[in-house]
Design goal:
alpha+beta
Length: 146
């Protein structure tokens, strides 16, 4: 069987899920993590980088895992440099489709919220107005870096 031709779903169906069922759900997850075969949180597990590499699924792995926060922060800063200000809905539109595929819509919304709050605490961005209508912009300290 040529595993490089299998999709991520096929790999999960043929190898990962059977191992999970055979060992019992929690025991299997622990074992599969220890072996470096899966990542993520149950029930949204996905193949590890090692398995993705062996199966020719590297791009899909990155899509499932998502990128680091610094990448998303750069997108926010780039947006604000270009357009000077944004509403939360603008950031949702900018980021949601780029977040890890294994996240639920609620988890994606929380990720965007947490990212913006972390950037605000780091004095990279700031906002004015009530939560529902807040307008976000680059902080004065971030503008000095230009």
């Amino acid at each position: 069987m040529d595993k490089t031709k299998l999709s991520e779903s096929d790999i999960c169906d043929k190898f990962i899920r059977p191992a999970m069922e055979q060992a019992g759900w929690n025991g299997a997850i622990k074992l599969l993590r220890e072996l470096g075969l899966v990542e993520g949180r149950a029930p949204k597990l996905f193949i590890s980088a090692k398995v993705a590499d062996a199966a020719g699924q590297k791009a899909r792995y990155i899509h499932n895992r998502g990128l680091d926060d610094q990448h998303y922060q750069q997108l926010v800063v780039g947006y604000l440099r270009k357009y000077k200000q944004a509403k939360r809905t603008d950031f949702d539109e900018l980021l949601t489709s780029k977040l890890a595929a294994v996240l639920t819509p609620e988890q994606k919304a929380n990720k965007v919220k947490n990212l913006l709050q972390a950037m605000k605490r780091a004095k990279i961005i700031d906002c004015e107005g009530p939560r529902s209508a807040a307008v976000w912009f680059l902080s004065k300290s971030a503008k000095k870096l230009d």
